[in-house]
Amino acid sequence: MKRKKGFNYFEAFVNLSKYSLSSAEILHKTMTEFKSSQLPNRVKEMHEIEHSADLAKHDIMNHLVKEFLPPIEREDIITLSQEIDDVTDSVEDVLLFINMFNIKSIRAEVLKFTKLISTCCKSVYELMIEFQNFKHSKSLHNKIVEINRLEEEGDGLYMEMMRNLYSSTKDPVELMTWTEILHRLEKCCDNCEDVADIIEQIVMKNS
Which protein family is it in (predicted)? Predict the structure, then answer.
């Protein structure tokens, strides 16, 4: 559903989700080529993306304040914008905590999780593209279901990694730091599912 004139909220949602995807790709690349000495640079790069995403979200809000008749309900625009932004924030949090805890080496299975997060964010991006035509789309539902499936995969990976963590070490510092990092990784997938859920609700209300 594209607007013929004025601010295009659907394109703005696509743009927001692109920031989430970029942040996820940086996270996975950082973990794959992990060097603790490079973390400050990667954190700075990630923060620039997160800051740009915040500005894009504020731009949506600024237009919404002046909008006479938005294409969908105002509350839905606000909620969806925030949910997409939360994905970017949660991905950034993973890198922030790895840097804050001064992690020197990455557990091998973490790469499975960051790859999954990248896939999840790519699916959200594709969902936002399809959302532009939500009243006529034949694939939107399948994209929502796929994100739900990826989130379930993330839950399973989280439980498996937590079990492996507590089976492999008794060191309290290592347990504390990696418990928190794994929680942050799992939250990224949860936030992606939150986006899919609000899209499903919007479609139901506007059908």
Answer: Belongs to the UPF0111 family.
